[in-house]
Amino acid sequence: MEFVKQTLLLLWKDLLLELRRRDSLLTMFFFGTLLLFVFHFSFDLPPDRVAEMTPALLWLAFLFTGTLGLTQLFQVERENHCLEALLLSPLDRGALFLAKSCFNLLLMFLVEAVVMPLFWILFNLQGWNLLPQLFLVTLLGTVGFCVLGTIMSAITLRARARELLLPLVLFPLMIPVILATIRCMETIMSAGELGAAWSWLRLLLGFDIIFVTVGILMFDRVIES
Amino acid sequence: MEHWSFVALAYGIVWSVLVVYLFSLKSRCKKAQIELSALTSAQASNEHDQT
Amino acid sequence: MALISIAIGLYWGLVIAPPDAYQGEVQRIMYLHLPSILAAYLSYFLVFIGSCMYLWKRERRDDILAHSAAEVGVLFTALTIIEGSIWGRPTWGVWWTWDARLTLTAILLLIYTGYLMLRSLIEDEDRAASVAAVLGVIGFLDIPLIHMSVYWWRTLHQPPSILQPNKAPWENIAWPLLIPLLINIAAFLLLLFYLLSLRYRLGEMRDQIRTRRLEQSV
User: Fold this and answer.
1) 3-class SS at A90?
2) Which of A129, B10, C144, C154 is packed most tightly, with the most Cβ within 10 A?
3) For chain C, first and last CA: distance in Å?
């Protein structure tokens, strides 16, 4: 399908650029790790309390790290006027949206894959066997974040005080994702399995599906000059 | 019935905010009106000069 | 004409309210609280409609409607929160509580304040209109999701405590209280439309100013 081909093409372009310069990835990775250290100093938690706070702390870290990535998302295009070039070409805007979202998702996936085990190590947590499930839930939440975040990143592209405005418009809309993901993670960590939190997971999935669709449909309105 | 003070507070705040907003709207409208008529007459005189 | 409707609304609301029987004086604040939140919801719905129409048809008047409704909506939402807080103090003893309804209202305030900030921070009017319209649609679509998640969170994880959030007034409202409530709702809605129409006119004028300025510079 033409649409899929375009998406993959754009994604590949971003990946290549990132592989060469690695700005975003490294910055995000170090920032995420730095946050873990800051949390450790800020919350002087006794070991038994840490497990309770883990989902929340992790997600805070990912939120802020992800926002960092989002502000960078269209930076490459802006720098060399590539955006105008992209828009002049007959590329489907929806493909651009998907490609950018996937790119950010991949970056965050890599960061999370490192930061989560790191968190377990730094905070001396048990339950290593739960990590795959937790990671899966985190990933679903990250999808929601990247999708909505890409739209917001494009929306705030030409605004003044952009770095401040982006979180301002994004975070309230992210509340269902934040709540759902953290609740799921808490349930997994306390009960060992998803079970009771299943409805939260459905909410998360619904959120992802809805906003991927909305993004594909509306992205051309967002990105035009 | 000390609760009356709360009621008064609530009603007071609400209505004063609404009144303030109303006046701010009206004054903004007035300024826009002035600006608009200035622009319109400037344009009209321009066209008059050109013909 | 609109002024008359406000006057009537005000008068009726205040006159009817005092002679009524009520459980605790503070209950009166409901006559402000409920109409305010209804006005806010209606405004946000109008933002949604305006945004959708603008994305579809690109007519300036839809954008002006969306912008106006957002501004007025934020006003009423802020009022709702203030009223809710004042009502909460004597009822529950605290100025703020994270119960579902107050939290939701606060989130709404954040979303649409963000909308207004977005518009004011983008220089190009046409772009501002387009992206704000997208935000308007997305924001509105997200509201049911936010609603669900906050309610689940608050009911599943906080068993009812001493601080019982008041039940929705329309559930158990006594008849004598219903009439002033309805009157006040009507009054607030009239007020809403009046403010909206004023704000809309302002938007129209600003739009004309902008158009003329563009013409003149050509």
Assistant:
1) coil
2) B10
3) 40
Closest-approach residue (CA) in chain B for C202 = B29
**What pLDDT digit, counting tens, does each position of B17-45 carry?**
988 998 898 899 999 889 888 888 877 77
| Mean pLDDT confidence for C54-66 | 89
Residue C27 confidence (pLDDT): 63
With a cut of 80, say whether residue C71 has pLDDT above it.
Answer: yes
Per-domain residue ranges of chain C: 30-159+180-217
Is A151 in contact with C150 (Cβ distance < 8 A)? no
Token pair in block for residue A79: 């720098």
**pLDDT tens-digit map of A173-186:** 999 999 999 988 88
Contact A186, C142 (CB under 8 A): no
Please state the domain extents for chain A. Answer: 2-223
Subunit contact B21:C195, Cβ cutoff 8 A: yes
Using 50, 70 and 90 to split pLDDT, how confident is the model at A7? confident
CB contact set of C92 (below 8 Å; sequence gap of 6+): C163, C164
* Cα–Cα separations (whole angstroms), residue C117 to A162, C74, C146: 11, 12, 21
CA C176 to chain centre: 26
Q: What amino acid is encoded at C43 in this protein?
A: S
Q: For chain A, say whether C126 makes contact (Cβ under 8 Å).
A: no
The residue among B1, B4, B5, B7 with the most chain C CBs within 10 A of its CB, best to mutate, is B7
- The answer to whether chain B touches chain A by having 3 or more C-beta pairs less than 8 angstroms apart is no
Measured between alpha carbons, how far is C184 from A33 in angstroms, rounded to an integer?
55
User: In A, what residues contact C, Cβ < 8 A?
Assistant: 148, 151, 154-156, 158-162, 165, 168-169, 171-173, 175-176, 179-180, 183, 199-200, 203, 206-207, 210-211, 214, 218, 221-222, 224-225
Report the pLDDT value the prediction gives residue B7, as an integer from 0 to 100.
Answer: 72
Distance from chain centroid for Cα C102: 13
CA gap C201, A49 in Å, rounded: 57
Contact C145 A207 (CB under 8 A): yes
ipTM of the complex in this document: 0.85
Q: Which of B10, B28, B42 sits opposite C29 (nearest CB)?
A: B10
Determine whether the interchain pair C138/A180 forms a contact, defined as Cβ–Cβ distance below 8 Å.
Answer: no
